[in-house]
Design goal:
The structure is a single chain. The chain is α+β, with helices and mostly antiparallel strands and about 650 residues long. The protein folds into four domains: about 220 residues, 4-Layer Sandwich (Glutamine Phosphoribosylpyrophosphate, subunit 1, domain 1); about 200 residues, 3-Layer(aba) Sandwich (Rossmann fold); about 110 residues, no CATH class; about 60 residues, no CATH class. It is about 40% helix and about 15% strand. The chain contains 29 helices and 19 strands. The protein has a six-stranded antiparallel β-sheet with strand order 2-3-1-9-8-10.
Length: about 650
């Protein structure tokens, strides 16, 4: 696991500034504190920071082929590298190291850009092909590992694992993209391929980018997508049996390591399933860890202990104060752009705990996306059943009127909070799903933004991100479609980003076997009715796991990795939130409607309305601005942020 950076002269072979490349590389020291190195030649510079996992003494990068015409910098793990190595040796390739990294070099020599189709793992890498004068970038299929890049005004191209590496460059602008702001306040993160800055982009999951000297920057190319190709008919018992076999194989493939390895164990279905499979294929006890909260409403540690005892794991648990909100600026510095998922706080803490004993940890991320485990999946399908009864021409005025008239009753029992449901029913499936997942919906954003900022948006709405994916979706099944939308937006933009930055902050590698692409491909072909049945998400997954986990683990109400956000913002964080949200420097950006911000603060503090998620988003946006030198903290002057037109 590593951090990679590079500078490439798209126009020719101008020398690369070594000190500048060094600064880029060292900005990501936390991703690879073991060692680092640079490689420079005319027109190209590569940098690499290493966290040693496999081939501890032989994995220093950049890494070359036999005649040093191909160079690689790589972040990730290739789980099938031993099989590939044998295949490539049979084709005449000579290996100098036992590392998985060298497998990529020879795979590129053999298959060119199609090498990515042979790789099983999580990866982001860059290859310099000197004979072809080509720079080739690739990102893994699910977006587990990050890749940021920028085409700079002087004709150079730069890339890095984290956005902060690009921000060390003196000629990169920090103008904020207004479309990214709109997307951030809708989703709680900035979805790929955009970043918060107009000058930088993210390489999309399952995509490659190939640049050649003397040619303009091309568009990226997609090499993989979730197929959703239905399987031949199988009984449910056959599905359950094959699911366990495939799950066990995916987990086992992720266990290669030359350093201590363990697992996160939250007590939920997904992490418990991973631990159960690990226990069946490893010698000795599995190392597991979990965090507990001193607030029972948010604590699942009793279930984690139950699984740990059943499988006799070497389990560590630490209790975190429910008022563990001192990480706001730490998180803003980690994520480099605004990021509003408050579960980043406990994720940071569990990574911190895991690193005390292991260097690699397996997680259960991806189970909800694979098997329709989110509450919003159930809600979307319920709404879709109602939509099927009435044409849009009738639904839109009827439910649109009900949605406008019905009060926003945050204080009421969930069954009486119908406003969001009415609003969703007035839309088609994609827009209704977007409305349901938005941290601040269209109605709120229309009031949150200033008139001047809305003019800069020129009518752009964040739903276009989902509409773009829906238009290219490989399925027309409603449940599969919303799962696909999650896999393209929420999974890489929120979940995997959260885990990557939190784990790398502690030099911890996190692996996600439920997102092994072979497992994802197979699960995507299962009938929707096996995933969501009678309001029960993960139906077939839970049935398959009954011999391995108790009903307490499988069938209790889903809790999630959450924190008492609204409570914090009415209590111990109220003054902090008020200072941040009403910060003159934040208001001077011209993005926000001052009167609505004040109204939200007052209503939330009084308890008459719950604006917790929107206010947290604003608070984290302010923290992002302060940590990027674009705006000052409350009470301190700073230049207003430039918002690109």
């Amino acid at each position: 696991m590593c951090g990679i950076v590079g500078i490439f002269d798209m126009q020719g072979s101008r020398p690369i500034d070594r000190e500048l490349l060094h600064r880029m590389n060292e900005s990501q020291f936390h991703r690879g504190p073991v060692e680092g190195d640079l490689h420079l030649e005319p027109g190209l510079g590569f940098g690499h920071r290493r966290l040693s996992i496999i081939a501890l003494e032989a994995g220093l990068q950049p890494l070359f082929n036999e005649d040093e015409t191909i160079a690689l910098v790589f972040n990730g793990e290739i789980y099938n590298f031993r099989e590939l190595r044998t295949e490539l040796q049979g084709l005449g390739h000579v290996f100098r190291t036992p590392s998985d990294s060298e497998t990529i070099v020879h795979a590129y020599e053999q298959w060119g850009e199609a090498c990515v189709n042979h790789l099983r793992g999580m990866f982001a890498f860059a290859i310099w092909d000197r004979p072809q004068q080509t720079l080739f970038l690739a990102r893994d299929r699910m977006g587990i590992k990050p890749m940021h890049y920028a085409a700079l005004p002087d004709g150079t191209f730069a890339f890095g694992s984290e956005l902060k590496s690009l921000l060390t460059l003196p000629n990169i602008t920090r103008d904020i993209d207004p479309l990214a702001v709109e997307e951030y306040f809708a989703y709680g993160y900035v979805p790929e391929p955009r970043t918060i800055f107009t000058s930088a982009r993210k390489l999309l999951p399952g995509h490659t980018l190939s640049l050649r000297v003397g040619q303009p920057l091309p568009a990226s190319k997609q090499y993989w997508d979730v197929p959703f190709i239905p399987h031949a008919a199988m009984s449910e018992r056959e599905i359950e049996a094959e699911l366990v076999v495939r799950l066990r194989e995916a987990v086992q493939s992720h266990l290669i390591s030359d350093v201590p390895l363990g697992a996160f164990l939250s007590g939920g279905v997904d992490s418990s399933a991973v631990v159960a499979m690990m226990a069946g294929v490893t010698e000795g006890p599995v190392n597991t860890c979990s965090i507990a909260f001193n607030n029972q409403a948010f604590d699942e540690s009793v279930y984690a202990r139950q699984v740990a005892e059943r499988y006799k794991t070497s389990h560590r648990s630490e209790t975190v104060d429910k008022d563990d909100y001192g990480l706001i600026d730490t998180l803003a510095a980690l994520y480099d752009e605004p990021y509003a998922d408050s579960s980043a706080i406990p994720t940071y803490r569990v990574c911190q705990l895991a690193r005390k004993n292991v260097t690699v940890a397996l997680s259960g991320d991806g189970g909800d996306e694979n098997f329709a485990g989110y509450r919003r999946h159930r809600m979307a399908m319920g709404e879709e059943r109602v939509r099927s009864l009435l044409p849009l021409a009738l639904r839109k005025p009827v439910f649109g009127l009900l949605g406008a008239a019905y009060p926003k009753a945050d204080w009421a029992p969930r069954v009486l909070r119908a406003k969001t449901t009415f609003e969703a029913l007035a839309r088609d499936l994609t827009e209704g799903y977007f409305h349901g997942v938005s941290v601040s919906n269209d109605r709120i954003r229309a009031q949150l933004f200033s008139n001047g900022f809305k003019q800069r948006l020129q009518g752009y709405r964040a739903v276009e991100v989902m509409r773009g994916y829906a238009a290219k979706a490989p399925t027309d099944d409603p449940l599969s479609l919303v799962q696909y939308l999650d896999m393209k937006t929420y999974l890489p933009g929120d979940i995997l980003t959260k885990v990557d930055r939190a784990s790398m902050a502690h030099a911890l590698e996190v692996r996600v076997p439920l997102l092994d692409h072979k497992f994802v491909e197979w699960v995507s072909g299962l009938p929707s009715g096996t995933k969501l049945r009678n309001g029960d998400g993960k139906h077939i997954f839970k049935k398959a796991l009954q011999p391995y986990l108790s009903d307490d683990i499988l069938y209790r109400k889903k809790q999630g990795f959450s924190i008492p956000l609204s409570e914090w913002l009415r209590g111990p964080l109220l003054d902090t939130m008020r200072r941040a949200v009403l910060n003159p420097a934040l208001l001077d950006t011209g993005i926000f409607n001052r009167s609505y911000l004040k109204q939200m603060v007052d209503e939330h503090a009084a308890g008459t309305k719950d604006h917790g998620t929107t206010l947290w988003s604003v608070l984290m946006f302010d923290a992002f601005l302060r940590n990027n030198g674009a705006a000052g903290s409350a009470g301190h002057s700073a230049p207003a942020v430039a918002v690109a037109a």
